[in-house]
Automatic annotation (TrEMBL):
Signal peptide location: 1-16
Domain annotation Ig-like: ranges: 117-205, 210-290
Region (Disordered): 354-402
UniProt entry keywords in alphabetical sequence: Membrane, Signal, Transmembrane, Transmembrane helix
Annotated protein name in UniProt: Ig-like domain-containing protein
Annotated Pfam families: Ig_2
Lineage: Eukaryota, Metazoa, Chordata, Craniata, Vertebrata
TM region positions: 294-316
Cross-referenced SMART domains: IG, IGc2
InterPro entries attached to this UniProt entry: Ig-like_dom, Ig-like_dom_sf, Ig-like_fold, Ig_sub, Ig_sub2
PROSITE patterns for this protein: IG_LIKE
Amino acid sequence: MALHLILLLMIMGAFGTEWSVKYNQQEICALKGSTVFMNGTFTHPEGLTVTETFWTVDPSEKPDLSKSPDYSGRVEYLSTKQKQSSLKLSDLMKKDEEKFFFRIITNVEKERWVGQPGVQLRVTELHVEAPEEVTEGQTADLTCKTTCSLTDPTFIWYKNGHPLTTKTIKNNQLHLQTVSSEDVGSYSCAVRGSQHLRSTAHSLRVRYLPKNVSVSIRSSGHTVVGFSVTLTCSSDGNPPVKIYTWFKEDGTSPVGSGHSYSPLQSGSYYCEAQNEHGAQRSDLVPVDLNGHSVILYGAAGVGLCGVAVLLSGFFWMRRKRQSRNVDEPDYVNTGLRVKSPDDDSCGVNVYENVTKAGLRAPPPDDHSSSAEDYENMTGSGLDAPPPDDGSSSAEDYENITA
């Protein structure tokens, strides 16, 4: 009798005469926005006809997911073999974290089954865990984190949106061996097969001493008495450079400080930029405060125009003071032209007119003019001997040398 019962139980098991549901995975971790598959196989007692199978998240109410508004358009049932069912759930949301059960309906009202223990779905997102700031020369590890364990993931790292191929990647970690300023950027990670589901970008800052220290030079120019030069120092550092010190070549003591400096002597200068991580100096910049090309352009231009103005005034005064009438005037109208004060240049015709006029200053003993009528015009190429009468003094003469 006992042997007969054992044989009966073996036959019932072999032909699937009992209710059973087996799941390939009882816990699944998937990325938000991805698609997940849940697979299950089942058996039922003989003599029953299966009329409907579906998946549910509520074993008590047992609603069909495909008919639920929360899963509308995201649920699909797949069956590749008899007594097997697969659930395809797309565009995962965080609220999809539930336990999913396979439900079997037969032609007998009381013969229905819910497969236990079900499949626990966990939905996660990727995020980068890393230090906010690293000092140059140190090492740094960036970790691609999840709230649950993905199944055999292969992690991909990105810097500023571009895949990283030259860095060391181990499991879910990106290792930066010796951090430099070139490692500054925005880092994100993804899983192969779901590259479109990247993590939120993480900005890595690197603290480093000043780099690319350079000096720019700017001159004022166009002045009568000379010109000035302003040197400006620029650099790249983190934190930004706030201390600039200026040195002259071969000098040991600073000659100035600040972002800009105006040297008072010719020579070669450099600046030193400093932050809390160190200092760096620029290349030497030569400064020539005696550059004739700049000085003459400004000084000579104004000086020659000044000579023209003085000459015009001299001849006008001279003609006005003449008290005698002669058939032929002693002086010829030179046709001098005075240019506007804002004109920086004078033409050659100013000086040619004076020369062609053949002007000759009358001797100082000529009583028709006084000593104050004469000016020292040596710089203009006009010779006027000093008066010998006692009516004039050195104050009556004006040096108009250009």
